[in-house]
Every structure is written in structure tokens, then in C-alpha cells.
Amino acid sequence: MSAVADRLFLKRRIVNGVTLVLSGLAALFGLFWLVWILWTTFTKGVDAMSLQLFTEMTPPPGQDFGGLKNAIAGSLLISGLAVLLGAPIGVAAGTYLAEYVNHRKLGEVIRFVNDILLSAPSIVLGLFVYTLVVRTTGGFSGFAGAVALAFIVLPVVVRTTDEMLRLVPTQMREAALSLGIPQWKVTTQILYRAAAPGILTGILLALARISGETAPLLFTAFNNQYWSMDLTGAVPNLPVTIFQFALSPFEYWNQLAWAGAFLITVFVLLVSITARYFLLRKKMSHD
After folding, report:
1. H-helix or E-strand containing 34?
2. CB-count burial class (<10 Å; 0-12, 13-18, 19+) for 101
3. Could you give phi then psi for residue 25, rounded to 5 degrees?
4. What is the pTM of this model?
């Protein structure tokens, strides 16, 4: 029996060692490409950074002077409107899931559909909004782009709100309801306060996700070389500008594309750090 147990123990140690080595190699393989991409974006993006990037409009073909001012402003406008459209609906839907149909079959069905929407390719959402809005209105528009990005924001906020509210202890609900406080007041004045850092984190993560989305905007907002903040027409934006400039034969346009990619990377990093800060603050306050 002792010999059998020793062989079994040795076999388990060998399998465990091989699994750890393979897992480590897989992690290093992924990190290698991630570091390479980030380093390339950093080196090429920093070389193209200048003050005129934020003060000049996108240049016409062949001109070696210009910036990304209109594209940056357009991206902020579309992304901000997308969050304003998607976040309130997402918070309301997440609240409904967590507080009213949490343990019901309907809640499970809604969560399943939300997970499908969460993993849906962004180009599919862009085509859907193209059919729903662009073809109906007869042209590209910044509003259509915001609607397409709002469909990406929505499932992220729904999932985060649902999970954060379910993490709030049941005793808080019972104590408030036992005092005769209406359900809507319990939700808005107690549960939202307890889950606010987590919900805000979900909104910030959704903002980080949509900041670099190109496919939905190609079918909805498209692009504009000029300064145009009119949401009823094509609006300049950074992702589509990067896409067009990266494919162009002009060297200066290629440099602007790298600069735009670097800006989006930095923006996503800052938003992610901010979201992490709110999560850590929530954890420290609970500890």
C-alpha cells in the first residue's frame, strides 16, 4: 500500500509540475505579445505627439501639418452621449434583476440574454443600428454612433449593477423594510449608496471599452474631416480616423494614426486605474 501511495503521490506531483510549467509558458506567451503591442504603440505614439495634435484639425491628403482636434472632440461627444444613453437604462435594468426578479426564472432568462449581448461582436451591433437608425434617417449621424456604442455600454452596466446590488447584505434590506420604508426608497437611498462605487466602476469600464470601438462607428457616425459637432450628420471621431490614416499611403497620416492609438491607450489606462481606485476604496471601507 505504501508503494502504491508513493507512486500515486509522485504521479500527481509530476502532473502538477507539468501543468504549472505549461500555464506559466502560456501566460508568458500572452504577456510577450501584450508588451510588444504596448511598447510599439508607446514608442511610435510618443514620437508623433506634439501640441498641434490637440490644436489643429485633421489634415487633407498630402499635407504634412495638422492634428486630431476635431477627431478627439467628436469621440468625447459620441462616447459621452453613449454613456448617458446606456448607463441609466443599464442601472435600472440591473436594479430590476437584483431586487425584483433575482430568484425567478425570468431573471435567469434576462441574465442569459444580457450575457449574449455582452459577448456580441461590436460590428453586429453596428449593422443593427445601421439598419435601425441610419437607413431610417437617410444618412450617417453622430446620434446613430452614440446609439451603437450605448448597446455596448448597456450589458456591461446591467451586469455590474446586478452583481453589486446582490453583494449588499440582505440584512440592510430587511432592517429598512422593517421600519416601514418603501421599496423604492430602500433601493435609491440605501442600496445605491452601498453599491455606488461598484456601479460607477462598471460605467467607467464600459466607457473604456467603447473608447476604441471602430466597427460600430464605421456603419453609423462614419467620419468627418472638419469640425462638426452636429449629431444629425457625420461626426469626426478618433477610432475611424486612426483606421483611415493607418491605411493611407501618406507618412504623416500614419504618424497621426500612431498618435491617436497612443491617446486611446492612455485614456483606457487612466479610466481603468480610476475604476480600480473606486473598487479598492469600496473594499477598504468594508474592511
Report:
1. helix 2-48
2. middle
3. -65, -40
4. 0.87
